[in-house]
Amino acid sequence: MTPEQLRAELARSQQQVADMAAAQEEFLRAVSHDLRAPLRHVTSYGTLVREVLGDLPPEVVQGAEVQEALGFLATMDQSARRMGLMIDGLQALVRTSRAPLRLQPVPLADAVAQARATLAPAEAGRAVEWRVAADLPTLQADPALLQDLLVQLLGNALKFTRPVAQPCITVLADAAPAGQVAFTVQDNGVGFDPARAGSLFGVFQRLHREMEFEGVGTGLALCRAIAQRHGAEVSATAVPGAGCTVRVSWPVNPAVAKES
């Protein structure tokens, strides 16, 4: 195969990848939009059914059949609201993949402080020990997307340290090869089974039961999408009952990911 043929084949392959990515984004956009209307009907008509049942005589409302029906409605409403959160997650992924990438120097320490301020309601009433290193790097990043990533990572650390008597969250600079900088977010929370780490960053993947911790499993998928747009990588390690460490490796010059 001649060099010209190789270049043509490479161009075709790149176009196929771009077409597949565009088709995936269009699919996610259509799904997240088109599911909204029937979901609104489920939640609104469930409310109307509860109102109708509530207008029955008290002795009927307290009967076993009506109480069972109300329980069914509560489960339906909970599931519909969860589906709404899942659609929100899909829409966030679509926005992340399509938003213009506006790179600029962002001091990571400042971005962490801003993310902590955003998460203040989740920390209210808790004595969380924060250990944020003074030597955190400055990243070439889109400030809004980096903020979304940090809110997800620090929010997870807050969530999964709730059962811990003395929660501690640490943000450190980490060693990285030439051309990259790295940082880690560590917590002493519940951790997870490392055998399941491969699915951690997938869409709708959860490593804990819903009754234990809220969420629909899109936060870390969003982190991965943000990292990939910058040419960065994110990974996680954990020990059950002994916390989790998320490592983010960021290119010093993410120009390869910047859109023209």
TrEMBL record:
Phosphoprotein recorded as keyword: yes
Documented EC number(s): 2.7.13.3
A GO BP entry: osmosensory signaling via phosphorelay pathway
PROSITE patterns assigned to the protein according to its UniProt record, in alphabetical order: HIS_KIN
CDD domains tied to this protein: HisKA
Keyword set includes Phosphoprotein: yes
InterPro entries noted in UniProt: BphY/WalK/GraS-like, HATPase_C_sf, HATPase_dom, His_kinase_dom, HisK_dim/P_dom, HisK_dim/P_sf, Sig_transdc_His_kin-like_C
Reactions accelerated catalytically: ATP + protein L-histidine = ADP + protein N-phospho-L-histidine
UniProt KW keywords: Kinase, Phosphoprotein, Transferase
Record-linked PANTHER family: BACTERIOPHYTOCHROME (PTHR42878:SF15), TWO-COMPONENT HISTIDINE KINASE (PTHR42878)
The protein, known as: histidine kinase
Organism: Acidovorax delafieldii (Pseudomonas delafieldii)
